[in-house]
Structures are given as C-alpha cells and as structure tokens.
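re: ur question from earlier - yeah i can do the single chain one, its not a big deal. heres the input i used so u can compare w yours
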Amino acid sequence: MSRSRAVNSYYDLLGVPPHATELEIRSAYGRDVLRLQETASDKVAQFRAALDAAFATLVDPEKRSLYDASLAAATQADVADAADDADAAFRYARRGGFWFAGGALVTGLTYAFSEGTYFLAWGPLLFGGFQLVRGLLRYLTVPNAARQASHLAVLGALIAVGILSAGFVGFSETQAAQQAAEGKKWNEMIDATSLDVTKASELVLSVANRPGPWTPAHSADMEKASVLYASVADVVGSATVPAALDWYRAGMAKNFREAAAIAHEYSLLTATSPASAFEALDNRWEARLNEADALADRFEAQVGPAPSP
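and the output i got, formated as tokens:
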C-alpha cells in the first residue's frame, strides 16, 4: 500500500466511512487489490486476506448489519471503559490535589497570621503534588470524549489554590528579604554618618555656648558644620530604604540640607551683622529641630525608636 491507515474496523481497513454504499466499498476494495498486485510478500498476503474478509462482510447486507451491531457494542464498551479510566484518574488526581492545596493553604495561613515563624507542610505539598501531577497525566491520556469540563475545573481550582498559596509565601519571603537588605544598608548608612553628625552638632553647640561677640572663629566653625551636614544630606538622600519608610529618608535628607544651609548662612555673619539676622537664623534652626522631632515621632509611632543619624 502507498499510504498507512489507522485500522480499527473493516471500514478503516478499506478506507471508507461507516455509511459507505456498496459501490463505494467495491471501488475501494478493487483499488487496494490492484495496488497489492505490485508487490508479493507474507505481509501482503495477510493484508489481502484481511481485505477479502472485510469486503465479504460489508457487501453482504445481513453480515454487514451484524458487523455494525457488534462494532457499535464494542464502541460503547470502549466509551464506557474510557469513562471509567477518566473517573479513576480524576479521583486519584483530586486526592493529590486536596493534599497539595491543603498543604499550601496551611503554609500560607500560618505565614499570614504568625510573626517570623510558620509551618511549612512539606509532606502534603510533595506527596500531594506528585500524586496530582501523576493523576493529571493519566487523565490527559484518556480520549477527549471521556473527559469532563467539571473534572478539569476542579483540578484547575486545586492547582490554583496551591500555587497561589505557595506563591504568597514565596513573594512575601522575597519582600521580607529585600526589606531586610534595605534595612541593613540603612543601618550601615547611619553608622557611616553618625560621626559627621556628631562633629557638626558639637561645632554648632560650641558656637552657641561660646561667650562674647561673633568672631571669624565662629564663622569658620559654622562653615565646617555646614560642610558636614551637607555631606550627611547627600548620603541620606541617596540611601536605600524600604518603600514604606522612604518618607523618613526624604524628610531626614531635607532636614540635613536645611541644617547645612542655615549653618552656611551663620558663617557669613560678622560682629557687625544686625541682631535680627542672628534671630532669624536662630528661629530657622529651632524650626528645623522641631521638624526633626516630628519625623522621629512619626517614625516611632509607625516602626519604633527612630534610628536618627
């Protein structure tokens, strides 16, 4: 034969539909016989014998009727067997799905309602996941006609519950790790700038407590403080913090820039500067300190004691 056929019945063997007429059956039989004459072998002889049997059955109305009845019964039996196979595979996959989804839900719920500790249900996750996948693969091997949309919907829902629950834990863990890394960088930044903040604050306090008129030494110390505050502002402004605390980083950077600007304006004063100029800068400095206190209070209310540089 020049082409292959999926042979499930005499009709398939002859390459005609089950409703073929006698003329169509005779034509198909004659065509195949002519083609078989081109070669000779044991397989060809066996195929010819099968063709003869199919032809003899399908051109005889009584034999064909009996054959069609037996073929229909066999088809119904195959459908029933396929339905049973599909149902068994579904029940097997569903049991695995319940274990898988249940384990993922337990993990997700304990993670959501606990602080830092949770129960990771490895057993149900692994066992259920393996059984679910194995059953689903078995289910997908049955004929399409035997599959049910409700079965696929149930298995899909169980898979979705498991994946979403596990995904929630994984996403939350990733976020927590990222926030921990950002918090570590923030603490490192505080450690790196604390010395400059201390030096600048000491310079400002020494100038404020120094008796006598304003001198070039006062201006020099305030300029030093301004440079230190500006350096701290740049470091704080470029620091990385958790998104929920970015307001604090931005507020502190602004506060230190204001401190640098005020200290620089102090450095420009002289002994002949009017008292109003000193008073105005003193008021700005006091307002800056109040803003810093407000930032610290908000931080403490939201997180805890403020890690002020």
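Residues 1-6 have pLDDT under 50 and may be disordered. not sure if urs matches, ping me
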